[in-house]
Amino acid sequence: MSLATQFYTMLAMISMGSFFGATLDTYNRFLQRGKRKRWIVFINDILFWLLQGLLIFYILFLVNFGEIRFYIFVALVCGFAAYQAIMKSTYLKLLEAIISLTISIAQFFYNLLKTIVYNPIKWLVFLLITIILGIGKGIYTLVQTILKVLLLVVKILLKPIIWIFHIFWRAFPTPVKKFIEKFYYLIAGKGKKGTNTFIKGLKFIVHIFIKK
Questions:
Q1: In angstroms, rounded to a whole number, what is the distance separating the alpha carbons of residues 83 and 81?
Q2: CA–CA separation, 16 vs 64, rounded Å?
Q3: How far apart are CA 188 and CA 101, in angstroms?
C-alpha cells in the first residue's frame, strides 16, 4: 500500500468516525429508547450496527480495496472523538432545527390540504346529506298526505255501503245475527290462536340459533 493510499485511508476513516458519531446521535434521537420495548430496541441496534459496519467497509474498499490495518481503527476512534469534542453540540442543535423545520413544513401542508381539500369535501358531503334528507322528508310528507286523502276518499265511498249494510243487518232475524256473530268470533279466535302459535314457533327457532 502506497503512502498516498494510506493517507487517503486515514482521512476517510477519520471522516467515517465523525460520521458514525453523527449517525449515532441521530439514531438515538429518533429511537427514543425509554419509550420503546426492549426487543424493538435490540433489533434496531443490530440493524444499525450492521449498516454502519457495511458502510465503513464499503468506504474502505473504495479507498484501499478493503485492506485492514491497525491504524484504521485508531483513525475511526480519532474521528469519533473529534466529533464528540468539537461537532456534537453544533450538530445536535442543527438536527433539532431541521426536525422543527420539517415538522413546521409538514404541518403547513397538512393545514393547507385540510383547508383547500378536506373542508370543502366535508361541507359538500354535509350539504348533499342535508339535501337528501330534505327531499326524503318532503317525499314522506307528500306520501303521508296522499294516503290521508285516499283514506278519506275510501271512507266517503264506503259510507253508503256501510249505511246499506246496517239497514240489511237490522233486517236480519236475530238467530241469523247470532249465527254470523258466533261464526265471526270463531274465525277470529282461530286466527289469533294460529298467529300466537306461529310467533311462539318463530321465537323457539330464534332461541335455538342464538343458543348455538
A1: 5
A2: 15
A3: 82
Spatial separation of the C-alpha atoms in residues 157 and 161, rounded to whole Å: 8
Taking the CA atoms of residue 23, residue 26, residue 27 and residue 28 in that order, the dihedral angle to the nearest 10 degrees is 130
Determine the residue type at 10.
M
Q: Where are the alpha helices (DSSP H) in the chain?
A: 3-31, 38-64, 70-82, 88-113, 119-171, 174-211
Domain ranges of the chain: 3-104, 175-212
Q: SS3 for 2?
A: coil
One pLDDT digit (tens) per residue for the chain, 212 residues: 567 777 777 888 888 889 988 998 888 888 877 777 888 888 888 998 899 888 888 888 888 776 777 778 888 889 889 988 988 889 899 999 999 999 999 999 999 998 888 888 988 988 999 899 889 888 988 988 998 898 888 888 877 777 776 676 566 666 665 666 676 666 766 666 666 676 666 566 655 545 54
Task: Tell me the C-alpha distance between 142 and 151, whole Å.
Answer: 14
Cα 1 from Cα 12, distance rounded (Å):
15
Per the CB < 8 A criterion, the answer to whether 60 and 13 are in contact is yes
